[in-house]
Amino acid sequence: MKIIVGITGASGSIYAYQLITKLLALPSSMVGQIAVVYSETGTQVWNYELDVAPIANDRVTYYEHSDFFAPIASGSAQYAAMVIVPCSMGTLGKVASGTSNDLLIRAADVMLKERRKLILVPREAPLNLIHIENFKTITLAGGVIIPASPSFYSKPQNIEELVNTVIDRIVAQLGIEIDSYRWGGRGEG
Known about the structure:
Rossmann fold, 6 helices
């Protein structure tokens, strides 16, 4: 499976970091290539919030947000899914309106037009009616909204465990079975 990870300027870069780390921990037979594209401010927020460089790995390829010649700009590249994490409300609005003004939004548009999995992980509160209508539009178009709302019933002991309560839901939506906490006990993956 080839996956695209879009990273926007919304707060919550740790979610993207933990997702990429978790995907890379899986065998390459499960998750092959990971294409990463930052929004124009995504890199700035990543650098501000995290004390780590972008993940270097031969399975990860980074694309500039202005590179419309990147493979992820076309459905013919056969990426199975895209996760935008964290997803700013500006990005969500652009995806909902179909304005493919950069590679990140174009890649999301490709996922929707090809009827492939598109997952958006907003980290915003409170929501206004425009946000909610955009959630509705994306859901009706086939996208999945997973708010970055961590759960506490697994009794996370640190920030990574708390973040992983959201990441595990994203990975499950990608159709990948992993061992993770589920209500009533551990998973069997």
